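Take a minute with the sequence and fold tokens given here and flag any structure token that looks odd. Thanks in advance.
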Amino acid sequence: MKLNCGSFCSSNGASDPAPTPARSTATNSGLAQLLAECPTSPGALFPGMRGRSLTLTRFMADKILKAACDHVGLFGVSTHSFRRTALTMMSSAGIPLRVIQEISGHNDLGTLQRYLEVTPEQRRFAVAVIGF
């Protein structure tokens, strides 16, 4: 299943978003099943609030997530940290960088690589490959 990202999230957060090129992304089978079971209605999957925008903005998504995390005592969490974690998990699982780049929508690998965290275990493994 593919989601058209333009159908649920404004790219610029403006109340009257400028047209942006449609972007779609693959989803895993579990998410596809959940979405298939959701009742459908016309309009955005995550509509904007109070008529200010047609779709949920990145700012509001982050604000909603922060409030939920604060409620359960999690701090330092953001939509951006979820994105970084997902990309790092893909890299750690051996997914080629070019594939991760396509999924993340980064224009170049240099930008993508700044997102990826390197764990101490990965550094130890890399050094162990040398074979001394």
The chain has two domains: 1-73, 78-132. The first strand starts at residue 2 and ends at 4. Residues 1-73 form one domain. The CA atoms of residues 89 and 102 lie 15 Å apart.
